[in-house]
Amino acid sequence: MLSLLVFAVLCASCLAKPALVHYSYSLAVGGGSGTSFSSEGEGRITAVRVWETNNAYITGIQLRYEFIWSKKIGRAVGNPQELNLFDGEVIVQISGKYHSNYIYQVIFVTSRGRSLIVGQPIQNSFNFYPTHMDAELKLLSGRYNSNGITSLGAHWGVVYMDQGNSTDVSLQ
């Protein structure tokens, strides 16, 4: 009887959510002057908007969490370039270019191999990606001033989908 109980507990523990927290941070790049920021939202990122000054640097970024757009980071100049994610699609990589004063280019890459490329490919390169294979982009952080984004970092974590509801375990 005791062995049956142990077997049942073992089977139940296999069905439970993993206890490991898969969180990682890609160190910020850029000069870092201005006001600090951190994007906010509940659930998965479902879209990205990016603004740029013509033939220059990135001026603003905005993320949509589920159906709600986060506060704009930086400033909106002209028309944004936007990437709407499909159901189950997540951001798995961010690359781009930076110089001592601004982020000049950002490239968001999804789990389906799609990408959004905004800005100019000049200066120093960066490449952000999660440490854990099952992690996705959770939020962006960095700094901005009255002209644009001066520093950018990425935070990665796991979101478990539970019967249509998302649970963010990376920050628990």
TrEMBL record:
<feature type="signal peptide">
    <location>
        <begin position="1"/>
        <end position="16"/>
    </location>
</feature>
<keyword id="KW-0732">Signal</keyword>
<protein>
    <submittedName>
        <fullName>Zymogen granule membrane protein 16-like</fullName>
    </submittedName>
</protein>
<keyword id="KW-0430">Lectin</keyword>
<dbReference type="InterPro" id="IPR052321">
    <property type="entry name" value="PolyBind_ProtTraffic"/>
</dbReference>
<dbReference type="InterPro" id="IPR001229">
    <property type="entry name" value="Jacalin-like_lectin_dom"/>
</dbReference>
<dbReference type="GO" id="GO:0030246">
    <property type="term" value="F:carbohydrate binding"/>
</dbReference>
<feature type="domain" description="Jacalin-type lectin">
    <location>
        <begin position="23"/>
        <end position="158"/>
    </location>
</feature>
<dbReference type="InterPro" id="IPR036404">
    <property type="entry name" value="Jacalin-like_lectin_dom_sf"/>
</dbReference>
<dbReference type="Pfam" id="PF01419">
    <property type="entry name" value="Jacalin"/>
</dbReference>
